[in-house]
Amino acid sequence: MLYGFFIIFLFYAIGNFCSWLIQGIVPGNVIGMVLLFIALQLKWVDALKLRTVAVGITTHMSLFFVPVGVGLMISMQYIGQYWAPIVVSVIISTILVLISTAYVQQKMESWNE
């Protein structure tokens, strides 16, 4: 279990370092997730050893949204002031995520055939 935490936090730290190197263009946690995904695909990291930690983290995922909710409540004055650009960006990003997810899903299904 300790190995799983170490690997996850190692890739998180590597991702944050890479993000710092590129001056924060891409968030460190995203870079870390991509690097961990690549390491899992290349079998550099044993997925079975991460399973217990990954299941535990995703089971308690709602706890990770508490700081975000508090941050939103603190930022209500900005949200009220800039609600229109926020709504437009949420709609556009949702559509882009739906399209890209559908595309990736279709590609992955075609690989299995």
From TrEMBL:
Topology versus the membrane: Multi-pass membrane protein
Cellular compartment(s): Cell membrane
Domain of life (superkingdom): Bacteria
Keyword tags: Cell membrane, Membrane, Transmembrane, Transmembrane helix
Single GO cellular component term: plasma membrane
InterPro entries: LrgA/CidA (IPR005538)
Coarse class of the protein's main subcellular location: membrane
Segments passing through the bilayer: 20-40, 52-76, 82-104
Name of this chain's protein: Holin-like protein
Annotated organism of origin: Breznakibacter xylanolyticus
